[in-house]
Design a protein that fits this description.
Layout: H1 2-5, H2 10-21, H3 24-31, H4 35-49, E1 54-57, E2 60-63, H5 65-87, E3 99-104, H6 109-112, H7 114-123, E4 128-132, H8 139-145, E5 150-153, E6 162-168, E7 172-176, H9 189-194, E8 196-200, H10 209-216, E9 222-227, H11 230-238, E10 243-247, H12 248-257, E11 261-264, E12 274-279, H13 286-299
Parallel strand pairs: 3-4, 3-5, 8-9, 8-10
Antiparallel strand pairs: 1-2, 5-12, 6-12, 7-10, 7-11
Length: 303
């Protein structure tokens, strides 16, 4: 604590900018400071930590092991300080120009993200929203350092650093084209298993929740096509006699543009549900509290 009392905390912001932007010039532009001022601050940082912190490789300053070790804690501390300062002030959504970064997995962006835009734009016309993909193993770090403000995902292993709110579950539906020779308004399990299926996922392999449910029943289906986007799968279904399963809210968005048959899934599946995640350090941030309320109001679904 005595060492902290003598330390210029502004240097940590400069350290974070150099680390995240990859150089003195980029950090100077980011902080709206002169390059000599950043260089002078870097010299102070090197003296304080008794380490070069960044070494030049080509056109970039590369962090040393010591810099990599402190980068995460420094970013998290700065984020916590920002939240504490924000908590002392009120948040006015009408006047705010803040950008909010919401972590959304590719498969969940539609309609989860789109459903928020109208509500947020109505209440806060000048804010910016960004839907950002993320790796689950990096979620805690991304929320701690501000790369993400909030995140939407399935149930993940508990972590004391994260807060979460259950948003609810929704059923899967089966999609078939209109005029399908074997499907007209409903589908039974025998027909479901007899037809080929399209699977839409960013994962290069692995079963879906339908496959896991069928395996528990001692059954299986044939996934004839695997693609990355629900829109692509929808197009394939429109031009074939295959089937495609996806959450009902996703299907309703696509069906409004390109009508299909939406059918009840003829087997029971485990509906894990969706959660809203945020970091404990951001718990007191009034802007994020406002956004969390909107997300919970817009996206909570009954079981």
């Amino acid at each position: 604590m005595r060492r902290l009392a003598r330390f210029d905390l502004n240097l940590l912001q400069i350290f974070d900018a150099i680390h995240s932007k990859g150089g003195v010039s980029a950090a100077a532009r980011h902080l709206n400071l002169s390059q000599p001022a950043i260089s002078h601050a870097l010299a102070k940082l090197r003296d304080a930590f008794d380490d070069p912190l960044f070494v030049r490789q080509g056109n970039k300053l590369v962090p040393t092991p010591a810099a990599r070790a402190i980068a995460g804690p420094v970013r998290e501390a700065l984020r916590g300080l920002d939240a504490a300062l924000d908590a002392a002030a009120s948040f006015d959504p009408v006047q705010s120009t803040r950008e909010f970064r919401i972590g959304v997995r590719l498969s969940g962006e539609m309609p989860r993200f789109s459903s928020l835009v109208g509500r947020v734009r109505h209440d806060a016309p000048h804010v910016a929203l960004a839907s950002v993909t993320f790796r689950r193993r990096d979620l805690v770090t991304a929320l701690a350092n501000g790369d993400l403000d909030l995140a939407l995902d399935v149930a993940l292993p508990s972590d004391a650093r994260l807060c979460r709110h259950f948003l609810g579950t929704e059923p899967l539906v089966v999609v078939a084209r209109k005029g399908h020779p074997r499907v007209d308004g409903a589908i039974d399990l025998d027909t479901y298993l007899a037809l080929d299926h399209v699977v839409a996922t960013a994962r290069p392999h692995g079963p879906g929740i339908e496959d896991m449910a069928l395996e528990r029943m001692g059954l299986g289906r044939r996934a004839a096509v695997r693609c990355q986007h629900a829109i692509t799968a929808w197009q394939i279904i429109a031009e074939s006699d295959m089937l495609f399963s996806l959450p009902r809210s996703h299907a309703e968005v696509l069906n409004a543009v390109w009508p299909m048959q939406l059918l009840d899934l003829p087997l029971p599946v485990d509906r894990g549900g969706t959660y809203l995640y945020w970091h404990q350090a951001a718990q007191a941030d009034p802007a994020l509290e406002w956004l969390r309320r909107i997300i919970i109001d817009e996206m909570s679904k009954p079981d």
